[in-house]
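Lab notebook, page 48
Experiment: co-folding of the full assembly
Goal: obtain a model of how the components sit together before planning crosslinking
Operator: M.T.
Materials (sequences as entered):
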Amino acid sequence: MGTMLEVRNLVKKYGEKLAVDDISFDIREGEIFSLLGPNGAGKTTTISILSTLFSPSAGDASILGYSVTKNPMEVKRLIGVVPQEIALYDDMTALENLNFWGEMYGLSGGTLKARVKELLEQIGLADRAKERIKTYSGGMKRRVNIAVGLMHKPRLLFMDEPTVGIDPQSRRAILDSVKALNKEGMTILYTTHYMEEAQELSDRVGIIDHGKLIALGTQSELTAQVGEMDTLILHLGENEDPEHLAQALKTLNGVLQANPSDHTIALVTPSAEELLAPVVSRANELGIKIHSIDMREPNLEAVFLHLTGRALRD
Amino acid sequence: MNLRKFFLIAFKDLRLIFRDPAGLVFMLLAPFALTLGMGALTGRFSGTTQLGISQIPLAIVNQDGGELGKALEDIFTSKELSDLVAAQILTDPTGARALVDQDKLAAAIIVPEGFSQSIFTTESGGNIVAVEFYQNPTRPTSTGIARSILDSFLNQVKIGRVSGTLIIQQLLASGAINPQQAASIGAEVGREVVGNASGSASIKLNSTTVEGSGAKFDILAYLAPGMAMLFLMYTVSFGGRSLLVESRAGTLARMLISPTNPGFVLGGKGFGIFLTAAAQLIILIGGTSLLFRLSWGDGRAVMMLILAAAFGASGWGILMAAVLKTPGQVAITGSAIALLFGILGGSFFDLSMLPEWVRKVGMITPNSWANEGFRILSMGGQLSAIKTNLIALLVMGALLYALGTILISRRGLVRK
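Observation: model returned without errors.
Model output:
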């Protein structure tokens, strides 16, 4: 497999603030690469630079050898972008939207007509194609939003958090379509803050936080960084003090990390099962009520927690 | 390929604005309704003449005793203007002013003693005795018309005076006459000009129509362009707003990510504003022609003025988008500017009622140039008569588009 995308020492500064802080990575042809990180980590800014919308403050990136700063037109022909927001015209029908965006990508005549028909069938909206977008549900809009990014059959598709704010059924449909597109040979850069999505879809994952790429590799390579550690997530009552309990739990045998946040405490331990009883007992001694407990085996969330000391959703 | 996308973006914007019910109300329904309402108020549809623009009641008090005062009298009492103006000759200026104050007259024109003498004998740069125009503020349209006839006459006199001075100076310089002869020859040249003025085509309303028949002033020809230009400014602010709306919605970014030169994306948006503005004016002008049987004048000249007005106005739309931060700000500022330009540009009342400095400020508005152009055409003027208006509107549009584009690029709307 050749290299589809090379990112080298990319930096984006807004005044003193570093939105993207010297990141470098490659994406191979035919792979799904996920950029996983919390909101505000720099995922959208990175995609905006790679899609030629923003100029980098330093560094460069190339797609199939074309620089995003020096050859933007060639890059634009190779890429498709599915933005996080629904970038469609509400007062136009799905058919009109697809026709408009198809023409913006240089399609015309029979080719355009055939491609629009094919996409409408793929997203299951052929029978509602002549209805205005504003009458669609959130999930239907998302599907049209994705279809627009696929109009010109791009070699590399950027998908920026395409499942934000939609129902589980539509989310499932989108994840399945990402897999199907990849099976057809499309290379995909997928950004998300949902660990489950990155785990389900990705060949490789880059974890990004505060503009920095803090980890990069396959899922097994990443989880190996935290060893065979389990994570226990304790959910406390609204009036309880997670800081106080976390301090107390740090003294227990087997607790490697105890990270408090809003009404929860994340414990990193070699054996969650063995730690369960002492944790509950210590909470009772302190009079702190635990609502529920989640046990997690090594995963990307644990990796993020291990690397940053924070949960992904923070 | 890029040019095709330029038009694609522009026609998409045109289609979207015509699908917006609120936009249609502002663009088309409101100007029609206001024109209709104001036309009814001024008696256009009832045939009444009290507030209409036929038989405008005027008084002329001629204390001059010279050729110019007589010529002015002759013009206002001429057969050609008899349908439009009902002028009575009075001798007492105080009485004439009182009749205006009592709302019995629209205006009184008082030509003071020595007016002609001051024109014929005063050397270039000397003081000229001023003609007084005493107007009734409750009859803006009628006084505006009377004022424009008077202005035409005075302009002709001014031209004659300058010509006379030049002729005398040249004759003196060449030695053809001596300084003692200059005064009498100057007076003779001046009289010649007055003779021309009293029979001049420039002040005869019925002598410049396309067909050669008499063009009657119609109050709707005064109101309709004013309303069309007022609402055109709303439309261009909607257009400018759409650039910021697209920036927020992500569709502008999506266009910029497509293989299209960013300049063509921005150009397409600008052309979309122009197209919408031109379409609005064409519909309003076509509509008023059909509904109110209003004659706008020479078709070719009207079309050129529509395009120039749309261009000049849409430049303001682009500038608003470039300077203001949010679509809400553009909507509020656009409404305020539309109203302000409507006032300064003569969309609500005749500009002759306003002080000179306000009229000068009004020249920055497309309304002022376009309103004047439409009025000239509706009263029988040809393309050549609106040349200055066309140039002013085109220069205004070009400057504002250029400035707007620079500011938009600096602001990073196209590339951050």
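Interpretation: Chain B touches chain A through 23 residues (CB under 8 Å).
Next step: discuss with group before ordering constructs.
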